[in-house]
Amino acid sequence: MRLRYTPNFTAWLEFDGRYLIGEKEAEILEGIQTVGSFMGTAKSLGISYAHAWNAIDRVSKILGEPIVEARRGGDSGGGAKLTEAGLSILQGYKNLENQIEEVLSYKIGKFKIKSKLFSHEITVPDLSIIGSHCIGIEILIELLAEESKFRSEFVSIGSSGGLAAVMLGETDIAGVHLLDEVTGEYNVPFLKRYFIDDKAIMVRGYLREQGFLLVKGNPKNIKGFGDLLKKDVKFVNRGLGSGTRSIVDREIRRMAEERGLNSRKVSQRIKGYNVEVNSHTEVAKALIHGKADVGVGIRAAAERFGLDFVPLLEEHFDFVIDRKRLKKPLVNLFIKMLGSDRFKSELERRASGIRMAEDTGNIIYEP
Fold first, then answer.
1. What domains, with CATH codes, occur in the chain?
2. Which CB contacts under 8 angstroms, 24+ apart, belong to 245-254?
């Protein structure tokens, strides 16, 4: 019996002995180069926006420089393009593929690598919200769905990712909760840092209580960040760029300074500091499944999953919107719902630790 088989291979590039990119990452880079958009690339490849974003973010962190940057201007509000580093590694991967293709073609006859780009139909959501994860946003989307039929996409990639998505023209709305330690002001100072202070407005959101999410009964008796240094305590962290991660790192720096220690060395003594998840829900699930004893998140997540909670602070969670997106009826409906008594009632009923501010739903910054 003659066996029939199909040749295949896996190729990748490494940097300092670490996996850098393979087929999946190369397809994302090629998509961004072709489409000029994270959203369009994700849709064309049949993957989530968060998957595409996190893949590129990981490569940039390994290289120590960005591989994608903003393309400013135009009616669409900009877009994304590859940096010189991004173009270089994409070309390097393509060269590697071509070399392998030539060898296989010589050995077994005609062989061609098939691209998956544009293998899926691109459907743009009617409303996109990219940025920090929050149960409050989930409630808002549910309430909007009762008012109007639409396709929505809510992507949790952290506050910094949300601001970058506005800069790139990738999203309608970005949820953010970042504290500027110099001014003591939440969120507004970061518009200038992401070069969107001339194109975006900020709408007041709501107040959220952040603290330690703990295994029921708090068996490790965790009360503060100093307890994370206990040898038997396992921590689960949030990803770099998220507002919650900024809280964690800020409090670790404060603790280290009080003890006369190096904050970086202190963070590396915390078991699980390098274990990162993307949402409050994932933090809670890590505790439920015994993968960690403690993480930082919102009270609403602790109550939803039956966990203990130790409060740390109350923060502002606000919404950044490109002014051009105000032309969309759904964006205006979102703002209206945000400031409504109906939303306030749902928060009180379903989201402990989240409350309306006096100016919720009002514009607090505009160019």
1. 13-108 (1.10.10.10), 127-365 (3.40.190.290)
2. 245/158, 245/276, 246/159, 246/178, 246/179, 247/179, 247/210, 247/296, 247/312, 247/313, 247/315, 248/296, 250/179, 250/181, 251/225, 251/312, 252/225, 254/225
Q: Measure the CA–CA gap between 79 and 241, rounded to whole angstroms.
A: 20
Amino acid in the structure at residue 114: K
Q: Taking CA 272 as the corner, what is the angle to CA 267 and CA 275, rounded to the nearest 5 degrees?
A: 105
Confidence of residue 47 (pLDDT cuts 50, 70, 90): confident
pLDDT tens column, 205-214: 999 999 999 9
- What is the three-state SS of 154-168? EEECHHHHHHHHHHC
The Cα-based distances of 188 to 52, 90, 134, 242, 337 in angstroms read 27, 36, 19, 16, 22
pLDDT tens column, 120-153 = 555 678 999 999 999 999 999 999 999 989 999 8
